[in-house]
Amino acid sequence: MTELSTTAAPDSSAAFAAASQSGAADYPGLDEWRSLPINQQPTWSDPAVFDASVKELSILPPLVFAGEVDVLRERLAAAAQGRAFLLQGGDCAETFEAATADRISSRVKTILQMAVVLTYGASLPVIKMGRMAGQFAKPRSSNDETRDGVTLPAYRGDIVNGYEFTPESRAHDAGRMLRAYHTSASTLNLIRAFTTGGFADLRLVHQWNKGFTANPAHARYESLAKDIDRAITFMQSCGADFEALKRVEFFASHEALLLDYERALTRIDSRTGFPYDTSSHFLWIGERTRELDHAHVDFLSRVRNPIGVKLGPTTSGDDALRLIDKLDPNREPGRLTFITRMGAGKIRENLPPIVEKVTASGAQVLWVTDPMHGNTVTSKNGYKTRRFDDVMDEVRGFFEVHEALGTFPGGLHVEMTGDDVAECLGGADPIDEAAFEDRYESVCDPRLNHMQSLELAFLVAGSLSKR
Ligand code: PEP
Ligand code: MN
Fold first, then answer.
1. Which positions are annotated as binding Mn(2+) (predicted)?
2. Considering its fold, how many domains does the chain have in total?
3. Radius of gyration of the chain (CA)
4. CA distance 458 to 217
């Protein structure tokens, strides 16, 4: 194994040590997934481009550092024990084109605003995490798409092919994995600058609201920000030191779908000797690739990152126990997160037996609600959408179930954006179907817009503070 040259890491000495990471070429078991059944993978059009891309990815620097990943695991352990709350949000599918400073900053600002609402409302530390800087690969229900009698391969995310409906664009181009890496790097760079360079300073809590459209949620946020201002002024007069408020921790995450990419970015951490998938801090396994004896579960069982698994309405308690045995055999707090996405009509019935089984087994996982993916419908005018009321109802159901069982509802996972899009129906300043024609921008699933995201944060803050 060749050691990579060490580059300067941003903050701690742990991160610095972790920057020296080897390519994991012959680490035992890391390639076991290649002999297992695997779903949702591309059929690359040019093997030579694939070989060259994987080779380059495996020597490029890590995008995140193992020391940061370990910090996240500790934070998630606190959330699993009811001492923190995870807020995870971002696009269904990031695109290369939309990785601009404006779009990235409005998404980060929205997540910071939601986090402030939650922290202030619930008096709990909030772990801030983007579905960002790597959310480029999408599972699809069909391999093909037909338009006006023409059938082409389905869009699988910018890391695989283009959204444009032409044979050239829809071909599976392995060279896109390199562009995904570089786009992730520039996105992360901007996120790091925003969250550590003074922009995320809590004293600027009003600034984060600037530039967004005035609406009911906007006004409610402004009034909360005034309360925070008053509290800060009071503390400042008491001589409190606000240096600590200048920086926030912000973590990246994405669905670990494209295993060629994830494997190529896996490195051996020089401090611990363990493999870390350095494409992101947190990785999750989707509802469609969580079969126990398939490739995705096997590969992710072997890296040290905290791992999430999406659990849909057909999940049984035994499925959950088997996933725990495979992904978290040592029952390590913070290692495993279950992201449930049952649907508003099903959560109150389907979630309790799973939670009960897991609790009875003694395992401690982090329970997170994804109120988006079980509530997708098609609008009358043909758009993939979600009703904001269903999203809110699934969140309420999640809180009710955990309240009844005495377990902790530890996080929220949402598809959202800071932009003023019209993709989900309803909200305090309601979006209707007609608005889709002008303001529907997602290339995959519908996202909450800025106002709907804040509104949801107020609901969650209310539910958390009641506990
Ligand atoms: C997603 O998070 O975009 C997704 C595809 O979710 P799920 O695996 O829950 O369907
Ligand atoms: Mn989605």
1. 92, 373, 415, 445
2. 1
3. 21
4. 9
Query: Which residues partner with 243 through β-bridges?
Result: none
Nearest ligand, measured from the Cα of 137: 1
- Domain with 308 in it: what CATH number? 3.20.20.70
Q: Per-residue pLDDT tens for 96-106?
A: 999 999 999 99
Close Cβ partners of 273 (under 8 Å, ≥ 6 residues apart): none
Residue 120, in any domain of the structure: yes
Listed as ranges, residues in the chain with pLDDT below 50 are 1-20
End-to-end Cα, the chain, rounded Å: 51
Does the beta carbon of 68 sit less than 6 angstroms from any atom of ligand 1?
no
At 117, the amino acid letter reads V
* String of DSSP letters for 46-82: -HHHHHHHHHHHTTSPPSS-HHHHHHHHHHHHHHHTT
Note whether residue 233 is domain-resident.
no
Encode pLDDT of 371-380 as tens digits.
999 999 999 9
User: Helices 388-405 and 347-360, interaxial angle, to 10°?
Assistant: 30
Backbone angles phi, psi at 307, to 5 degrees: -120, 140
Q: How far is the CA of 211 from the centre of ligand 1 (A)?
A: 30
373 pocket-lining for ligand 1 (C-beta < 6 Å): yes
Q: Which residues contact 440 (CB under 8 A, 6 or more apart)?
A: 383, 421, 422, 423, 446
- Domain span at residue 307 reads 50-200+247-465
> b vs e for 301-328, b when ≥16 Cβ sit within 10 Å of the residue's Cβ?
bbbbbbbbbbbbbebebebbbebbebbb
Nearest ligand for residue 138 CA: 1
Sign of the four-CA dihedral 87, 88, 92, 98: positive
pTM score, two decimals?
0.94
Whether 24 maps to a domain, the answer reads no
Report the separation in Å between the CA atom of 271 and the middle of ligand 1, taken as the mean of its atom positions: 34
pLDDT computed for residue 200 by the predictor:
85
Q: How many residues does the chain have?
A: 467
Say what the pLDDT of residue 21 is.
Answer: 54
